[in-house]
Amino acid sequence: MNPGSLNYFFLLIGTMIVFYLFNDNKLKQSVLLLASLFFLSFFGIIPVLTCVLLSILNFYFAQHAYKSAYNFPKLVAINTINIFALLAFRFVNEFEIGALFSAPFIGEQFVAALGIGFYSLQNIGYQIDIYKKRYTPEVSLLSFTLCNTFFTRISSGPILNIKAFNSSLSTLPSKLTEENFTVGLQRILIGAIKKLVIAERFSYYINLYFDGIDPGVKTGYDVVIACFLFTIQLYFDFSGYMDIAIGSARMFGINLNENFNMPLRSQSVSEWWRRWHITLINWFTQYIYYPVAYKFRSKRMMATVFAIISTFAISAIWHGFGVTYLIWGSLHIMYLIIENFLKKDLLKLNEKLTSFYYQLIFTPLTFILVSFSNLFFRSNSLADAKRLLLKLIDWRNFFPDISLKSWILNGVDWKMEFMVSMRLGFLFAILYLLFEEKLSSRLNKSKFSIPLISFLIIFLIVFGVFNSGTRFIYMNF
Amino acid sequence: MRTSEQILEELQGIFIKEFSDSSIVLNDQSTAKDIAMWDSLTHMGLMDTIERHFEISFSLDEMISFKNVGDLRTAITAKLK
Fold this sequence. Notes:
Oligomer: heterodimer
Number of helices of chain A: 18
Order of helices and strands of chain B: HHHH
CATH superfamily of chain B: ACP-like
Number of domains of chain A: 2
Order of helices and strands of chain A: HHHHHHHHHHHHHHHHHH
């Protein structure tokens, strides 16, 4: 079941009806848990069992360890299990699915343990917090399991802080307020538009470019376009999913953390990581970056460098076992270390150039750097990445040897209908990005506007690409 | 025994030296947003300098819990008592 599919919305509406029939908080939580297990069951019995068993294990382990002095060996033991489960299922997943990105049809694919990448991090963080006595163990197995399985966000995040999520569960609303309904619906609609009107239109091209099918990539120019388009597609796909997850949760009065804050406006790679996949990077910062930087803080700059390397090395492994992910992680390590060394100079440059010109130079530069790293993130294998890199550095054949009119629009001789479709998506993407700040603030307003909602629905119906059946990219993790 | 004002003054000196920025003026409400060089990449180095200067030690949780300079000053004052 794909978030954004009709099945998903029937599940959401059905769950909302039953949820608001009950007044009792525990019953409401039980409804959400049952809906979540039902959602998971679409991917097979193994994801259900894995998630439930790991939740039960982590819940009781933390309680027991806390009562009998939670020591370091115990923390290592439980988190070894968590990490082993995560890596084992990730391993099975990649081998079963093969190339992650070229297997888009979720219904026809085996997903070993959907969402394990996300709830494992939650469980690992939870055990560390209890070990560090940051708070006391959870007392409700129902809330704890729901936090891991919650269906609106299990497959791609945002990553939750178990304590914060569970405190929001204690105040579930008795009725669907106008504010929750309006904001929830608006976020769901904009998420569906991001996915179906924009990201989907890029899929055909991205797959053609990266999956090595002729006439995918002929020149370096094509590689540049492929990397740029993929970065835009990934943003709209992933943040679209987040809008649907956050909007759906809002229907139950649950506020999930935001995962994106207009990352394409970043003026540095470090700023990019403060705006992109925020809950994941916060997790890595809290549980890997800070402890490492703290341990070696007397080494000053070297401590920062070592902490950045540790964080992105683990992040790369979390994304997948391939060498391509390691190269992607290494590039970001390099970017961040260079930025850190040049920080004072960049600040001076900002003053000299004034923020207008600084932004004009460094926003596109950041986009280019991130897009280049995505060449490795998206490539199915090292051989594929190498093939694209060779095209990129072949400067004699960088531009297609055809007329200006053709290559400025598109160097590849694809079918006109696909070209028009992609360009329409590109147009909508740029329009969205230009007005992103205003739109985001309007969509978080609680005043129900019939013209706005009608416009969003009609826009989605008219321009949405509904027949491809592709899943959200981050469901692979 | 240092007064609260003295601690703030010393902190200002540390920030100026650490970030090579003589324009820094601290008050209790100052946060990382107000000081361009102060972010997660430079935070631990700054904390190390503060620990050495005042001859105190912070735990990791203390270091990442400071929301502003006021929190930092309160923690230093408590440790110096």
